[in-house]
User: Which sequence fits this backbone?
Protein backbone atom coordinates (compact mmCIF):
# COMPACT_ATOMS: atom_id res chain seq x y z
CA UNK A 1 0.00 0.00 0.00
CA UNK A 2 1.36 3.46 -0.82
CA UNK A 3 0.17 6.97 -0.17
CA UNK A 4 0.96 10.19 -2.03
CA UNK A 5 4.66 10.90 -1.71
CA UNK A 6 5.90 13.75 0.44
CA UNK A 7 8.95 14.25 -1.75
CA UNK A 8 9.20 13.54 -5.45
CA UNK A 9 10.99 14.59 -8.62
CA UNK A 10 8.97 15.19 -11.74
CA UNK A 11 10.87 14.18 -14.84
CA UNK A 12 9.50 15.92 -17.91
CA UNK A 13 9.87 14.03 -21.18
CA UNK A 14 8.64 17.01 -23.27
CA UNK A 15 11.38 19.14 -21.66
CA UNK A 16 13.94 16.45 -22.50
CA UNK A 17 12.85 16.41 -26.14
CA UNK A 18 12.85 20.20 -26.27
CA UNK A 19 16.41 20.30 -24.95
CA UNK A 20 17.62 17.71 -27.44
CA UNK A 21 16.12 19.86 -30.20
CA UNK A 22 17.96 22.92 -28.85
CA UNK A 23 21.23 20.99 -28.66
CA UNK A 24 20.73 19.85 -32.25
CA UNK A 25 20.23 23.44 -33.35
CA UNK A 26 23.34 24.61 -31.51
CA UNK A 27 25.49 21.71 -32.71
CA UNK A 28 24.90 22.30 -36.41
CA UNK A 29 26.25 19.38 -38.41
CA UNK A 30 28.13 17.72 -35.57
CA UNK A 31 27.02 14.27 -34.51
CA UNK A 32 25.52 14.10 -31.05
CA UNK A 33 26.60 12.01 -28.07
CA UNK A 34 24.30 12.27 -25.07
CA UNK A 35 25.95 11.79 -21.70
CA UNK A 36 23.85 9.52 -19.49
CA UNK A 37 26.39 8.74 -16.81
CA UNK A 38 25.51 8.73 -13.11
CA UNK A 39 22.00 7.56 -13.96
CA UNK A 40 21.51 10.42 -16.39
CA UNK A 41 22.76 12.97 -13.83
CA UNK A 42 20.25 11.57 -11.35
CA UNK A 43 17.25 11.79 -13.68
CA UNK A 44 16.96 8.03 -14.27
CA UNK A 45 18.68 6.80 -17.44
CA UNK A 46 16.26 3.96 -18.10
CA UNK A 47 13.25 6.28 -18.04
CA UNK A 48 14.86 8.60 -20.56
CA UNK A 49 16.66 6.36 -23.00
CA UNK A 50 13.67 5.40 -25.13
CA UNK A 51 12.97 9.09 -25.77
CA UNK A 52 16.47 9.90 -26.97
CA UNK A 53 17.36 9.89 -30.62
CA UNK A 54 21.09 10.55 -30.96
CA UNK A 55 24.21 9.24 -32.69
CA UNK A 56 25.52 7.74 -29.46
CA UNK A 57 25.11 7.64 -25.70
CA UNK A 58 27.98 7.81 -23.21
CA UNK A 59 28.40 6.54 -19.67
CA UNK A 60 31.33 6.45 -17.26
CA UNK A 61 31.16 2.95 -15.73
CA UNK A 62 30.86 -0.44 -17.35
CA UNK A 63 27.89 -1.33 -15.14
CA UNK A 64 26.02 1.69 -16.48
CA UNK A 65 26.69 0.48 -20.01
CA UNK A 66 25.57 -3.07 -19.19
CA UNK A 67 22.36 -1.71 -17.64
CA UNK A 68 21.55 0.22 -20.82
CA UNK A 69 22.27 -2.81 -22.99
CA UNK A 70 20.14 -5.09 -20.77
CA UNK A 71 17.35 -2.55 -21.04
CA UNK A 72 17.42 -2.92 -24.81
CA UNK A 73 19.43 0.06 -26.00
CA UNK A 74 21.23 -1.15 -29.12
CA UNK A 75 22.72 2.07 -30.45
CA UNK A 76 26.30 3.25 -30.22
CA UNK A 77 27.44 3.37 -26.61
CA UNK A 78 30.71 4.82 -25.30
CA UNK A 79 32.48 4.05 -22.07
CA UNK A 80 34.13 7.36 -21.24
CA UNK A 81 36.61 6.51 -18.50
CA UNK A 82 37.36 2.80 -18.46
CA UNK A 83 40.08 0.90 -16.64
CA UNK A 84 41.36 -1.18 -19.51
CA UNK A 85 41.97 -4.87 -18.79
CA UNK A 86 41.28 -8.18 -20.57
CA UNK A 87 37.91 -8.67 -18.95
CA UNK A 88 36.69 -5.19 -19.80
CA UNK A 89 37.82 -5.52 -23.39
CA UNK A 90 36.01 -8.84 -23.62
CA UNK A 91 32.75 -7.47 -22.19
CA UNK A 92 32.96 -4.39 -24.41
CA UNK A 93 33.33 -6.55 -27.48
CA UNK A 94 30.45 -8.81 -26.47
CA UNK A 95 28.15 -5.86 -25.80
CA UNK A 96 29.46 -3.68 -28.62
CA UNK A 97 30.55 -0.89 -26.33
CA UNK A 98 33.04 1.63 -27.73
CA UNK A 99 36.07 2.05 -25.49
CA UNK A 100 37.81 5.35 -24.88
CA UNK A 101 41.57 4.83 -24.60
CA UNK A 102 43.05 7.46 -22.37
CA UNK A 103 46.67 6.42 -21.97
CA UNK A 104 49.51 4.86 -23.91
CA UNK A 105 49.31 1.90 -21.50
CA UNK A 106 45.64 1.35 -22.33
CA UNK A 107 46.43 1.48 -26.04
CA UNK A 108 49.36 -0.90 -25.58
CA UNK A 109 47.12 -3.33 -23.73
CA UNK A 110 44.64 -3.43 -26.58
CA UNK A 111 47.36 -3.66 -29.20
CA UNK A 112 49.01 -6.57 -27.40
CA UNK A 113 45.83 -8.64 -27.50
CA UNK A 114 44.81 -11.15 -30.12
CA UNK A 115 42.04 -9.07 -31.65
CA UNK A 116 39.32 -10.65 -33.75
CA UNK A 117 39.67 -10.08 -37.47
CA UNK A 118 36.68 -9.03 -39.52
CA UNK A 119 34.89 -5.94 -38.36
CA UNK A 120 37.42 -3.55 -36.74
CA UNK A 121 36.78 -2.67 -33.11
CA UNK A 122 35.84 1.01 -32.71
CA UNK A 123 37.97 2.98 -30.27
CA UNK A 124 38.13 6.63 -29.27
CA UNK A 125 41.38 8.20 -28.15
CA UNK A 126 41.24 10.65 -25.29
CA UNK A 127 43.67 13.55 -25.57
CA UNK A 128 44.75 15.70 -22.65
CA UNK A 129 44.65 19.20 -24.10
CA UNK A 130 45.18 20.95 -20.77
CA UNK A 131 42.71 19.70 -18.20
CA UNK A 132 45.29 17.20 -16.95
CA UNK A 133 42.79 14.61 -15.90
CA UNK A 134 42.57 11.60 -18.24
CA UNK A 135 44.13 11.56 -21.70
CA UNK A 136 47.35 11.30 -23.66
CA UNK A 137 49.10 14.66 -23.83
CA UNK A 138 48.29 16.31 -27.16
CA UNK A 139 52.00 16.77 -27.86
CA UNK A 140 52.64 13.05 -27.35
CA UNK A 141 49.67 11.59 -29.20
CA UNK A 142 51.10 11.19 -32.73
CA UNK A 143 52.73 7.86 -32.04
CA UNK A 144 49.76 6.21 -30.43
CA UNK A 145 47.35 7.52 -33.07
CA UNK A 146 49.55 6.11 -35.84
CA UNK A 147 49.94 2.79 -34.02
CA UNK A 148 46.20 2.40 -33.51
CA UNK A 149 45.31 3.57 -37.01
CA UNK A 150 47.72 1.08 -38.58
CA UNK A 151 46.10 -1.90 -36.83
CA UNK A 152 43.55 -3.42 -39.24
CA UNK A 153 41.49 -4.82 -36.37
CA UNK A 154 40.89 -1.42 -34.82
CA UNK A 155 39.03 1.62 -36.05
CA UNK A 156 39.86 4.96 -34.45
CA UNK A 157 36.48 6.67 -34.64
CA UNK A 158 37.60 9.96 -33.19
CA UNK A 159 40.00 11.72 -30.90
CA UNK A 160 38.31 13.15 -27.87
CA UNK A 161 39.19 15.87 -25.40
CA UNK A 162 37.46 17.63 -22.55
CA UNK A 163 37.24 21.31 -21.65
CA UNK A 164 38.20 22.46 -18.18
CA UNK A 165 36.65 25.94 -18.29
CA UNK A 166 34.28 26.19 -21.25
CA UNK A 167 31.58 27.63 -18.95
CA UNK A 168 33.82 30.58 -18.07
CA UNK A 169 33.82 32.82 -21.12
CA UNK A 170 36.57 35.00 -19.67
CA UNK A 171 39.02 32.10 -19.31
CA UNK A 172 41.90 31.73 -21.80
CA UNK A 173 42.09 28.02 -21.13
CA UNK A 174 39.48 27.15 -23.73
CA UNK A 175 41.42 28.93 -26.49
CA UNK A 176 44.61 27.18 -25.39
CA UNK A 177 42.95 23.77 -25.35
CA UNK A 178 41.39 24.40 -28.75
CA UNK A 179 44.75 25.40 -30.22
CA UNK A 180 46.26 22.08 -29.12
CA UNK A 181 43.44 20.04 -30.61
CA UNK A 182 43.47 22.07 -33.84
CA UNK A 183 47.20 21.40 -34.20
CA UNK A 184 46.63 17.68 -33.67
CA UNK A 185 43.73 17.67 -36.11
CA UNK A 186 45.96 19.26 -38.75
CA UNK A 187 48.42 16.40 -38.38
CA UNK A 188 45.67 13.75 -38.50
CA UNK A 189 43.06 15.30 -40.76
CA UNK A 190 41.28 12.02 -41.45
CA UNK A 191 40.39 11.57 -37.77
CA UNK A 192 37.18 12.97 -36.33
CA UNK A 193 37.36 15.20 -33.26
CA UNK A 194 34.93 15.10 -30.33
CA UNK A 195 35.44 17.99 -27.93
CA UNK A 196 32.52 20.19 -26.90
CA UNK A 197 30.57 19.59 -23.70
CA UNK A 198 27.37 21.58 -23.10
CA UNK A 199 29.17 24.89 -22.56
CA UNK A 200 31.32 24.22 -25.63
CA UNK A 201 28.23 23.50 -27.71
CA UNK A 202 26.52 26.79 -26.83
CA UNK A 203 29.43 29.17 -26.35
CA UNK A 204 32.36 27.88 -28.44
CA UNK A 205 31.22 26.96 -31.96
CA UNK A 206 34.87 26.54 -33.00
CA UNK A 207 34.88 23.46 -30.76
CA UNK A 208 32.06 21.64 -32.53
CA UNK A 209 34.16 19.56 -34.95
CA UNK A 210 32.53 16.25 -35.94
CA UNK A 211 31.07 15.13 -32.61
CA UNK A 212 29.75 16.92 -29.53
CA UNK A 213 28.97 15.46 -26.08
CA UNK A 214 25.98 16.95 -24.30
CA UNK A 215 25.24 16.34 -20.64
CA UNK A 216 23.89 19.16 -18.51
CA UNK A 217 22.06 20.93 -21.35
CA UNK A 218 20.10 17.78 -22.14
CA UNK A 219 18.68 18.02 -18.63
CA UNK A 220 17.68 21.63 -19.26
CA UNK A 221 20.26 23.39 -17.17
CA UNK A 222 22.31 26.24 -18.59
CA UNK A 223 25.96 25.14 -18.48
CA UNK A 224 27.26 28.67 -17.87
CA UNK A 225 26.42 31.86 -16.02
CA UNK A 226 26.10 33.40 -19.48
CA UNK A 227 22.94 33.11 -21.54
CA UNK A 228 22.30 33.14 -25.24
CA UNK A 229 19.21 32.80 -27.37
CA UNK A 230 19.41 29.02 -27.35
CA UNK A 231 20.31 28.42 -23.70
CA UNK A 232 17.30 30.52 -22.79
CA UNK A 233 15.10 27.91 -24.41
CA UNK A 234 16.39 25.02 -22.30
CA UNK A 235 13.72 23.66 -19.95
CA UNK A 236 14.59 21.82 -16.71
CA UNK A 237 13.79 18.13 -17.00
CA UNK A 238 13.79 17.58 -13.24
CA UNK A 239 11.54 19.51 -10.90
CA UNK A 240 12.04 18.50 -7.29
CA UNK A 241 8.97 18.94 -5.10
CA UNK A 242 8.00 18.40 -1.49
CA UNK A 243 4.95 19.04 0.66
CA UNK A 244 4.53 21.41 3.55
CA UNK A 245 4.10 19.22 6.65
CA UNK A 246 3.40 21.92 9.20
CA UNK A 247 3.26 25.67 9.78
CA UNK A 248 4.74 27.00 13.02
CA UNK A 249 4.77 30.40 14.65
CA UNK A 250 8.19 31.14 16.10
CA UNK A 251 8.46 33.88 18.72
CA UNK A 252 11.07 36.61 18.55
CA UNK A 253 14.30 35.36 20.10
CA UNK A 254 13.50 31.66 19.43
CA UNK A 255 15.71 29.66 17.11
CA UNK A 256 14.91 27.00 14.54
CA UNK A 257 16.61 23.69 13.77
CA UNK A 258 19.87 21.94 14.69
CA UNK A 259 22.47 24.05 16.50
CA UNK A 260 20.11 27.03 16.55
CA UNK A 261 21.69 28.53 13.45
CA UNK A 262 18.77 30.88 12.77
CA UNK A 263 16.92 33.01 15.27
CA UNK A 264 13.69 34.90 14.69
CA UNK A 265 13.98 38.64 15.31
CA UNK A 266 10.21 39.04 15.28
CA UNK A 267 7.29 36.57 15.41
CA UNK A 268 7.76 34.53 12.26
CA UNK A 269 5.69 31.93 10.41
CA UNK A 270 7.75 28.93 9.35
CA UNK A 271 6.75 26.20 6.91
CA UNK A 272 8.27 22.82 7.71
CA UNK A 273 8.80 21.00 4.41
CA UNK A 274 9.38 17.30 3.87
CA UNK A 275 12.78 17.24 2.23
CA UNK A 276 16.29 17.02 3.62
CA UNK A 277 19.78 15.79 2.97
CA UNK A 278 18.45 12.22 3.10
CA UNK A 279 16.75 13.07 -0.18
CA UNK A 280 19.77 14.79 -1.63
CA UNK A 281 18.88 18.36 -0.72
CA UNK A 282 22.28 19.82 0.17
CA UNK A 283 22.93 20.12 3.89
CA UNK A 284 25.19 23.08 3.21
CA UNK A 285 22.35 25.16 1.76
CA UNK A 286 22.52 28.36 3.79
CA UNK A 287 19.74 30.42 5.33
CA UNK A 288 18.36 32.46 2.44
CA UNK A 289 18.39 29.62 -0.10
CA UNK A 290 15.27 30.21 -2.22
CA UNK A 291 12.35 27.80 -1.92
CA UNK A 292 9.47 28.26 -4.35
CA UNK A 293 5.88 28.02 -3.06
CA UNK A 294 2.95 29.12 -5.25
CA UNK A 295 5.42 30.81 -7.58
CA UNK A 296 7.02 32.94 -4.85
CA UNK A 297 10.55 32.45 -3.47
CA UNK A 298 10.84 32.22 0.30
CA UNK A 299 14.11 31.91 2.24
CA UNK A 300 15.20 28.69 3.87
CA UNK A 301 16.08 29.30 7.51
CA UNK A 302 18.16 27.16 9.86
CA UNK A 303 20.06 23.96 9.24
CA UNK A 304 18.88 21.41 6.68
CA UNK A 305 17.96 18.17 8.51
CA UNK A 306 17.86 14.63 7.09
CA UNK A 307 14.14 14.77 6.24
CA UNK A 308 13.08 18.37 6.79
CA UNK A 309 13.81 21.97 6.02
CA UNK A 310 12.31 25.12 7.51
CA UNK A 311 11.26 28.11 5.44
CA UNK A 312 10.30 31.64 6.44
CA UNK A 313 6.93 32.22 4.74
CA UNK A 314 6.16 35.63 6.26
CA UNK A 315 2.47 36.41 5.96
CA UNK A 316 1.91 34.27 2.90
CA UNK A 317 -1.15 32.08 2.55
CA UNK A 318 0.76 28.80 2.70
CA UNK A 319 -1.05 25.76 4.10
CA UNK A 320 -0.14 22.27 5.24
CA UNK A 321 0.01 19.95 2.20
CA UNK A 322 0.92 22.76 -0.19
CA UNK A 323 3.72 21.96 -2.61
CA UNK A 324 7.16 23.55 -2.60
CA UNK A 325 9.62 23.41 -5.49
CA UNK A 326 13.24 22.96 -4.47
CA UNK A 327 14.64 23.27 -8.01
CA UNK A 328 13.48 22.83 -11.58
CA UNK A 329 10.64 24.65 -13.28
CA UNK A 330 10.49 28.21 -11.94
CA UNK A 331 13.68 27.94 -9.85
CA UNK A 332 16.87 26.88 -11.57
CA UNK A 333 19.10 24.24 -10.00
CA UNK A 334 21.98 26.50 -11.02
CA UNK A 335 20.65 29.27 -8.78
CA UNK A 336 19.96 26.97 -5.82
CA UNK A 337 23.40 25.33 -6.13
CA UNK A 338 25.13 28.64 -5.47
CA UNK A 339 23.52 28.84 -2.03
CA UNK A 340 25.09 25.50 -1.16
CA UNK A 341 28.49 26.25 -2.69
CA UNK A 342 28.00 23.54 -5.24
CA UNK A 343 26.95 23.11 -8.86
CA UNK A 344 23.72 22.00 -10.48
CA UNK A 345 25.40 18.77 -11.64
CA UNK A 346 25.89 17.73 -8.03
CA UNK A 347 22.36 18.62 -6.97
CA UNK A 348 20.60 16.44 -9.53
CA UNK A 349 23.17 13.63 -9.39
CA UNK A 350 22.93 13.34 -5.62
CA UNK A 351 19.18 13.01 -5.47
CA UNK A 352 18.70 9.88 -3.38
CA UNK A 353 16.82 6.73 -4.26
CA UNK A 354 14.21 7.65 -1.64
CA UNK A 355 12.88 10.35 -3.95
CA UNK A 356 10.31 8.92 -6.28
CA UNK A 357 10.80 9.91 -9.92
CA UNK A 358 7.44 10.72 -11.50
CA UNK A 359 7.59 10.66 -15.28
CA UNK A 360 5.57 13.41 -16.97
CA UNK A 361 4.87 12.42 -20.55
CA UNK A 362 3.02 15.49 -21.76
C1 LIG B 1 34.25 13.29 -20.58
C2 LIG B 1 32.98 14.07 -20.49
N1 LIG B 1 32.37 14.45 -21.61
C3 LIG B 1 31.22 15.17 -21.58
C4 LIG B 1 30.62 15.51 -20.40
C5 LIG B 1 29.35 16.32 -20.42
O1 LIG B 1 29.57 17.58 -19.89
P1 LIG B 1 28.35 18.59 -19.69
O2 LIG B 1 27.43 17.94 -18.70
O3 LIG B 1 28.98 19.81 -19.14
O4 LIG B 1 27.72 18.75 -21.01
C6 LIG B 1 31.23 15.15 -19.19
C7 LIG B 1 30.63 15.53 -17.94
O5 LIG B 1 31.14 15.53 -16.88
C8 LIG B 1 32.44 14.40 -19.24
O6 LIG B 1 33.06 14.02 -18.12
Assistant:
Amino acid sequence: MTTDPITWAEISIPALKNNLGIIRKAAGNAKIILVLKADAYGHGALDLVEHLDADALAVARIDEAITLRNHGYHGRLLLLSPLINDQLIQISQQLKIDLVLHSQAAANHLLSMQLPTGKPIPVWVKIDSGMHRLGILAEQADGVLSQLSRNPNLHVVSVMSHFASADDLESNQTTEQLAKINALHKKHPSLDVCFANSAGIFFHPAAHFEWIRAGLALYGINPSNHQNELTQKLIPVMTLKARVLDIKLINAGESVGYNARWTAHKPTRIAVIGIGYGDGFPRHAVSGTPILIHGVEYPLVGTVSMDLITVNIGDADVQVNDIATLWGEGLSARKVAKFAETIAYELTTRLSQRVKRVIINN
Remarks:
- The domain at 238-360 is CATH 2.40.37.10 (Lyase, Ornithine Decarboxylase; Chain A, domain 1).
- The longest helix spans residues 13-27.
- The CA atoms of residues 194 and 211 lie 4 Å apart.
